[in-house]
Amino acid sequence: MRHLFALVLVVLSLSAPAHAHERSRSVSNWRETESGMTGEFLLDARQATLFLGTMPRGTSLETAFGIRLADGLQVRRGDRTCDLVAAPMVRLLADGRLQGVTDWRCSAGGGPVAIDVQVYSPFSPNHVHFLQARMQVGERQEFVLTRGNTLARLSEAGEALPLAQRLGRYVSLGVTHILGGPDHLAFLLALLLIVANWRQILLATAGFTLGHSATLALAYLGWINPPGAAIEALIGFSILFVAAEAAFQTAKPDRRQVVLVTMVLAVMAIANSVLVGTISVPVWLGLVVFVGSYLAWLSAGGDVRRTIPAFSAGFGLIHGVGFAGILLELDLPRGDQVAALFGFNLGVELGQVVFVAMAGLIFLLARRLLPGRVFTHGRFVAIALLSAAGCYWFLSRAWA
After folding, report:
1. Cα–Cα distance between 119 and 368 in angstroms, integer?
2. Which residues of the chain have pLDDT under 70?
3. Quick one: DSSP state of residue 60?
4. What pLDDT is attached to residue 383?
């Protein structure tokens, strides 16, 4: 197992210069005007770098985003296409997002408005776009658009949707979010590499559910407000940590390995104070103490499986704050907060249950049907890949 430990360290060192890959999502806010519609788009500037691959060399992010807005949007009133009045106005905001404003001239009357959004989805199959619109009369309308559903049909009177329909949208959003989040799925896969039967799978996923449900509610209601960038980095750390736990199931770390890993993390903590990363120094120091003491416990004969329910709940607290970010971006009216929180969390749980059931079944069947050597090698590869993914997300987001 020493060669696996060495592989984890090599991947750790190679992952440092990588750039963060954040969840693919964008937001637009629309309002009806006397002449037509106005739409404001918000997109993380780092996500907009994908546009540059289709643009002439030297094109700025702002220009590329403006071109994509002009090419990827279509607004219709009834059966008539609305005209884009002028080139989109794009600027880079202080928070690192690109803001693009578009004005559309529509014919008077003519029926309800429909907005087709294909700005980013052609570049990312998992992209989710949140569209909010307010007509001159009626309630605000919300839509969740994906690559397979790019059209928002607005109600002329702006009637509020029935509670069941609104709840269904939030459930769908939760399912889409968990199944479209490779980091959350990677964490669940890492857990499955440790557990040995369905009972342990249930304990691990129940712990994760309790943890993320608690902080999802606390963060969404504004009772806690940890920095989002640090949370994203710690999600990567959780994947790396659990994958390492799987590696240490069959071969305990020796003292030299414990000291080496602790020293590497300590050096990172020192580098963080110089490079000013997204994770605060106290959190880095906490990671050093936590990892060092835990590896020392494993080295002394500790059993990984005894800690899984507690650690899955603890890391679930981190993932829950990440889940809350998507609801906070929507800026929902107060009357919809309870439905949004309940429906979204339910959707996350449904998606999680489906994924864990399918992956767990495949894993347990592979354990029973494959020759022992083939299964062991496959598990080795899975641990290495998950360790690589965890390293990448952890380090690139820590110094994004």
Report:
1. 46
2. 1-23, 109, 156-161, 400
3. -
4. 92
- Confidence (pLDDT) at 252: 80
Intra-chain end-to-end CA distance of the chain, in Å: 32
C-alpha 92/C-alpha 153 separation (Å) is 29
Question: What whole-number distance in Å separates Cα of residue 103 and Cα of residue 184?
Answer: 38
| Ranges in the chain annotated CATH 2.60.40 | 25-161
Cβ–Cβ < 8 Å for 356, 347: no
Total residues found in the chain within this entry? 400
Residue 112 backbone dihedrals phi, psi, to 5 degrees: -70, 160
For 248-265, the pLDDT digits (tens) are 887 788 888 889 889 988
The letter for the amino acid at 256 is R
Structure tokens at 93: 């905001």
**221: its two tokens:** 């209601």
Which residues are CB-neighbours of 33 under 8 A, at least 6 positions away? 103
Rounded Cα distance between 163 and 51, Å, is 38
Decide if 192 contacts 356 (C-beta within 8 A).
yes
In angstroms, the CA 354 to CA 179 distance is 9
- CB distance 357 to 189 below 8 Å: no
- In order of 40, 78, 150, the CA distances from 156 in angstroms are 20, 11, 19
CATH number of 25-161: 2.60.40
Q: Give burial (CB, 10 Å; 0-12/13-18/19+) of 3.
A: exposed
**In the chain, alpha helices (H):** 2-15, 45-48, 61-72, 163-179, 182-192, 198-220, 228-247, 255-275, 281-299, 308-330, 337-369, 372-398
Name, in order, each residue with C-beta under 8 angstroms of 35's C-beta and a sequence gap of 6 or more: 105, 106
Task: Quote the CA–CA distance of 347 and 172 in Å, as a whole number.
Answer: 6
Q: What pTM was computed for the model? A: 0.81
Determine the Cα–Cα distance for residues 160 and 391; give it in Å rounded to an integer. Answer: 45
pLDDT at 160 (0 to 100): 62
What pLDDT score does 158 carry?
Answer: 58
Q: Which amino acid is at 44?
A: D
Q: What is the model's pLDDT at position 217?
A: 93
What is the distance between the alpha carbons of residues 116 and 101, in angstroms, rounded to a whole number? 16
Q: What's the sign of the alpha-carbon dihedral 67, 73, 79, 80? A: negative
DSSP secondary structure code for residue 127 in this structure: -
